[in-house]
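Need tokens for this chain, all 166 residues.
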Amino acid sequence: MSELGHRCRLLTKVPEQWWGEVKPQLDAYADFVDADDREVLTWQEADDRAAVGRLVDKWRRRWTKSRNLNGYMEAPGVLWLAPKGWLDDLLVEQHGGHGDGARIRLTDGRPAIVYAAEWSEAGAPVAYRVRELEPGQYGNAGKLVPSFRDELVSRDQVAGGLNDGA
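Here are the structure tokens for all 166 residues:
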């Protein structure tokens, strides 16, 4: 699988895919890093290895039961959706498309805001999770605000960026 394919797997929102495929691969990578005993030849290699080692340590600690501020033991785990926006931004920068928060106009004329991109293993996004922008009410009258309803639209339903000044 390509590097982009691996990144797309990390972007999954499907719990079964996260627990069944992604987390075991990340655990295997952490094991590989822990067992890496190759000789370090340069300062850059030493710095890189130390940085990766710190990330692996954080990963390992996150899966260890710990006591919270109230004194109760917390179950281990991570919120895997947290880095999705950062990874989306990285992939948009490399492959084009619209990132999180981009205001767009759909081909039917409706303005919308992008909440997430859906990626293929080949490159640019194939779809976007959007919320339609509606005229504001109350204290935000005159501005376009996101609706509460998400919608998945394919890439070819996006006409382009939106310049609404709001």
